[in-house]
Amino acid sequence: MRKALLTTNQAGFSLVEVILSTAVFVLLVTALVGAYLYGQESTALAGNRARATMLAEEGLEAVRNIRDPAYANLTDGTYGLSTTSNQWNLSGSKTIISSVDTKRKSVTSNVTWQQNPQRSGSVSLAARFTNWIGSAPPPASCNEYAVSQEYSAGTCRQNTQQCTNNSEIYLSGGDAFCVTDFPGDPSHDTCCALP
Q: What are the backbone angles phi and psi of residue 193, rounded to the nearest 5°?
């Protein structure tokens, strides 16, 4: 009789062990599947954020390219960006330009995207742009003026005829940078430039 009782208890432990091991296995599989799915979603979200950051940086570079030809191209407002004939243009509503002072503008580039049906993501980058061309110091000589006008060099001469005689181009805007009196020499107040 004792033997029969032992056998019954042994079978009972076996069933409890099977239930516990199945429960532990199910919990472990659920945790691993959850971690895998969460990792997949996190990787996708990180990739989207990285792409959005690069697009926002490209937006700031586009505004810089619009600013370089003329600072006046940057007017306060909210814009998007488009290209026409390989030139960036302001249009739409994702880039905000506002004045800081007369020589600086604050630019904010915004990128938004739909992460999943429940939420959207956004990246916002800001930079300040200056009127660096307008803030350059004035030329100190006829030569500096000629170089700023994209000539190879400039020289002060006595008159425009000397510009012609030396195969140079007369630059009326550079006359103010010529010294008008050389000791013992006639005045040299005409700015000529080498092409």
A: -125, 145
Q: Which two tokens stand for residue 166?
A: 């030396």
Question: What phi and psi, each to the nearest 5 degrees, are found at residue 117?
Answer: -60, -25
At 72 the three-state DSSP class reads helix
Range of the domain at 70: 33-130
For the chain, the domain total comes to: 2
What is the rounded CA–CA span in Å between residue 82 and residue 58?
12
Q: How many CB atoms lie within 10 A of CB 134?
A: 11
Indicate if 113 and 38 belong to the same structural domain: yes
Give me the phi and psi of 136, to 5 degrees please. Answer: -70, 145
Dist CA 23 CA 37 (whole Å): 21
3-state class of 180 per DSSP? coil
> What's the token pair of residue 39?
């990792």
pLDDT tens column, 49-94: 888 888 888 888 888 888 877 778 788 888 777 777 777 777 666 7
The residues near 194 (Cβ < 8 Å, ≥ 6 apart) are: 146, 151, 152, 153, 154, 155, 168, 169
**Cβ 179 vs Cβ 142: under 8 Å:** no
Give the H or E element holding residue 110. strand 104-116
